[in-house]
Amino acid sequence: MTAFITLLTLSVLLLSAGCGAVVLLRKEQLALPLAVAAWCTALALFVANWCLAGAVPFGNMRHVLCFFPLVLGPAAFYMQRCRRINLTVSFALVAALSMLGALCMPMQAAWRQMPALQSPWFAPHVIAYVLSYGLMTVAALMVLIRPLRGDKAAQDERTADALVKLAFPFMTFGLWSGAL
Length: 180
Prior knowledge:
Elements lengths: L1 H23 L6 H23 L7 H21 L6 H16 L18 H24 L7 H27 L1
């Protein structure tokens, strides 16, 4: 099972990196199939981690990093459809980096929730924080590359601002649900 999880993690890494690469190479027609494949593979990874851990897989940082692509995919879709901002490269890069981080961490299969974490608020708390951190990471990436973008720097600043405004309610909910 651990070899299967490692294979799924590597697959999400490669599919996410490939999605970002095809956009950079101006082959946008390939981006959506790669993004969908990366998201579906990340979902399979989440289910495999759940089966291995025997509980919702949020018990260690490896589990949380493996969850990033699941929240980043819908966030990228929302930004593109509702805000008309295409951040496929940024979201794919963050997803790939999270998978690279997950591959560098030990697989702790025997995790069990301590009594203080056995709350119905645990999963919504972690999901809200992962989503907000993912959005904030993409916003930070947009600000970091802004000097390299020249005439598109103002657009990048507005995009980062929109991402922070989207992330803030999730971060607030994560703090609130964690306190409960």
